[in-house]
Amino acid sequence: MLEVYMDLKFIVISDDLTGANGISGFMSRFCNSIVINYDNSFINDVASLPYNCVVVNTKSRMIDGVSAKNCVNYVLGLFNNGRYRFGKRIDSALRGNIEDEILPFIERGFIIVITDTIPEYGRYTTNGFTVINNSRDSILTRFSRVTPIIINDINKLIDIKNTTGKVFIIDSRSHDDLRKIANFITRNQNIVPVDPLYLIAYTAQQHAALIHQEQSRLIMNKVTRRIAFVIGSTQEMTIKQINYAKSHGFYVIGLYDLIKTNYAVDNDWIIIYFDYMRDRGLLTQELVKYLMNFDAIVLSGGETANFIFELSGGLFIESIADIMPLIGVGIIKGGILDGKLIVTKGGFIGKEDTYVIIRDFLLGLSAKNKNR
């Protein structure tokens, strides 16, 4: 028998804004999806809003495990009447408080199903490991208080149906694998999908189809000419992306140098770069006011995105598209950047040409822009 309530919203809990916006952007293909911070009072109105997918950002990537667990407990406490399905997004590089943020689900008797596969990035899951570019990263070592059970055969998922409070790590390599796992999860109310993107998104997609949720696809019909890239990540790939963008017409300036000009730089495609951990004291309302001069804002780096969005006073992000896996596009609602397009990207995501691809998408020059 199908164990599904017919009026459920799908709630995803993410530990940072770039991941939240990335998965919400993909889910906007099949449901009305938004991103909201867990501590924004507007979250209390979610139940009455016309969005059937809600991604909640707990901003807990960089905090201690006890506080991270409390954040997730708080969100689950808000949506505790049994009329919600849940997904738990984890970082694509397995950073953060993974076990602490899964424990609140386990303590409520949920079954946890984890996989860590993004085929486009050559990333797959096998025998409890994430494999990418011939390097292996253990998912098992992220756990010390619970012992995950490895399942190598998707067909054996049926064996977990009657368990409670267990964690399972499932092998997967392809989108077909991810859809098969999602199909099983969708039909079992007490299972929570855990991954960076596709397992959760496909579960939400199948759930939406199963209960016949209506979706009003938002069209990206804004005229986009001026784009500001605010980059607080210092990852090696990020530096390569900045240099590539500079060679393709972007104006690149350090945040400190921009401040010295009194924010007088006028360029249609500007990259403002800095080291978030070192320079976050330089992120002020003056920078946010400067961003008001642009049609679209690209935030790169999870903590950078969290900080700038909060500094702007935004209430939530209404998702409208994704450019590539984990690079989401939305519209800021509320605050001084209300109505601006926002794109977010993690420091590890993409190749050298990623910022150029984002620019071309926003300008309507890319074949990947399906909204124009």
From TrEMBL:
InterPro entries to which the protein is assigned, alphabetical: 4-carb_acid_sugar_kinase_N, 4-carb_acid_sugar_kinase_N_sf, NBD_C_sf
Record's signal peptide: none
Residue intervals of the Four-carbon acid sugar kinase N-terminal domain: 11-136
Coiled coil: none
Pfam families referenced in this protein's UniProt entry, alphabetically: SBD_N
Domain of life: Archaea
UniProt xrefs under SUPFAM superfamilies: YgbK-like (SSF142764)
UniProt cross-references to Gene3D superfamilies, sorted A to Z: Four-carbon acid sugar kinase, nucleotide binding domain, Putative sugar-binding, N-terminal domain
Record-given protein name: Four-carbon acid sugar kinase N-terminal domain-containing protein
